Amino acid sequence: MRSGTGILPVWEKMLETLGKTLLLFGATMLFFGALLWGLSKALGGRLLPGDIVIHKPGFTFFFPVVSSLLVSLLLTLIFWLIAFLRR
Predict the structure, then answer these.
(1) pTM for the whole thing?
(2) Are residues 77 and 58 in the same domain?
(3) 22 and 12, same structural domain?
(4) Quick one: 35 and 56 in the same domain?
(5) What is each CA distance from 21 to 8, 28, 73, in whole angstroms?
């Protein structure tokens, strides 16, 4: 590739930034995935009160209402803290 003036350096910088962003996103997803997996093992896979489970012959429906609310609250607090610390 040619460096210097023109549009090529803009693309190089944009692709480099995109690559770093994707790596950071992937590492973050890996961290939170491992954290949630570890928490599920620590809790023994127990359901929280308010989680919906319907068992029928040949069919099981699981909707973790309370678990989803807790994860949402936790992520909201984490992102709020990150935004607060970046000011």
Answers:
(1) 0.47
(2) yes
(3) yes
(4) no
(5) 20, 10, 25
Domain of residue 51 covers 47-87
Per-residue pLDDT tens over the stretch 27-84: 999 998 888 788 777 766 666 778 888 999 999 898 888 888 888 998 899 999 999 9
Tokens 């997803």 belong to: 29
Q: What are phi and psi of 55, to 5 degrees?
A: -105, 125
Task: Identify the burial level of 17 via C-beta atoms within 10 angstroms of its C-beta, where 0-12 means exposed, 13-18 middle and 19 or more buried.
Answer: exposed
